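ingest -> validate -> predict -> emit
validate: passed (alphabet ok, no gaps, 546 aa)
predict: started
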Amino acid sequence: MHAPGLPRASVLLELDLTEPPVQSEPEDPLSRLRARSRRRLAPTLRALHQAGTDPRVGGLIARVGGPLPWALMEEIRLGVAAFRASGKPALAWAETFGEGPGEMAAYVLATAFEEVWLQPGGTLGLLGVAVEATFLRGALDRVGLEPQIEQRHEYKNAADRLMRTGFTPAHRESLDRLAESVFEDAVTAIAQGRRLDAPRVRDLVETGPRTAAEAHAAGLVDTLGYRDQAFDAIRARVGTDAHPLFADLWHPRRRPRIPARGRGHVALVDVVGTIVSGRTRPTPTGRLAGSDSVGAALRAAADDDGARAVVLRIDSPGGSAVASETIWREVSRVREAGKPVVVSMGRAAASGGYYIACPADAVVALPATLTGSIGVFGGKVVVSDLLERLGVATGAVEHGARSRMFSPRRPFTAEELERLAALLDAVYEDFVAKVATGRGMTAAQVEAVARGRVWTGRDALGVGLVDHLGGLRDAVRIARERTGLPDEAPLRPALHVPPLARLRPPRSSEDPRATASVRLPALADLTAALGLPLGEALLMPAVTVR
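emit:
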């Protein structure tokens, strides 16, 4: 059976969103092997935005359910909306929308589809948005660890989790607004997708969770059915011979080459993970974005005559202040070379992540992107009491009154605390000044939205920290517009080192292989990934804008 008015198609585009797609291609062979069964985000978004015009593609079906980061969900939702603009059918099905953290985001994504199916035995846990915080001070006191941390300023709540046993008013205010902003956007999206009034959606949230039958009766889902029935239903509209193909495996038909005078591309530079000095590398607790690797990619883009603009894709909670400044300098140099830099923010561009974004020509954030946190903290965790309880004796010899200032085996002296405060004040003032220059604001205007506070992308737009709401494709479109590139101008990685080439030693620090060598995670990587002060601060003096 085939729906009249539609050409017979051979492909049914398929998404599996029960776990988040891989956002950046792993650089080392081991990570690639682990990620081989997961879908990839970039080609998935390309398919959603482009496959609607492909006559071979008849429709879209997606399996949803399972936790999704809010910002990632929003970016995929933009792609679904673009596909639906083609008029082709789009159906989302779920075994269940559970009650766990992040499950509501999966349902919000489903409402972007033309039809929402739910398995008869499933549930719809439409419960709202909550942000939970864990405070470690009580546990640290019990084991004999004393955090000595200075923060700039009251909203810099990463330090609060170590220093306190509960919310400060500023910490609670910040998190409450984050949750409220995300919740407001979720209600609006559901209301539009399900053609309900916003007050009705809020009432449904307050009275959940619901069985599948109750969700259907409330108009939250269209059909109760199983996977095979959902596939049969969409095949009845696009053609029974249409075979499913994961969206990230779809490729557009070859197009004629762009004439020589129109050649050029947009260079893509990824900053994914905690920002640290050195190379980008994987660790057992997550990816580290190394300033050496990111800087090399930005230099490659600046030197490439074919790269007419740069899109800096940031998904980072921050990290080392020094490493962030190193990347900031390279971003500034790309602009000095006459090439626009457009930032695309993913789940987070906070602290160091925002530090490296502020000099860009334009900043694009998703509504739920964690943005800002213009602030700094630093210090150490003193272990002397713990060692004493364990019966561990220590000794030291020193030359220089402050040679052990950052040693975890003794507390700061009053004079050392003064110097730490002066260091943090200097970093904070410099951070504010850089944001003011990059964003065209006064220092006073930045100070009013800084002080360590985190904003959602939507709220950050209102206070002047970002320029546009949208995803990666919006950032690429802006980059093309600013350079006069045609719509079909490609997006290419600024720097690519083939795996085999990485095995050869670099010839100099300018050799791309110097920033892309493959190695196994080391202990230092693990401690850096943990963040300050539980990680690096136990090993060395450091300041973080995380």
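The first strand starts at residue 11 and ends at 16.
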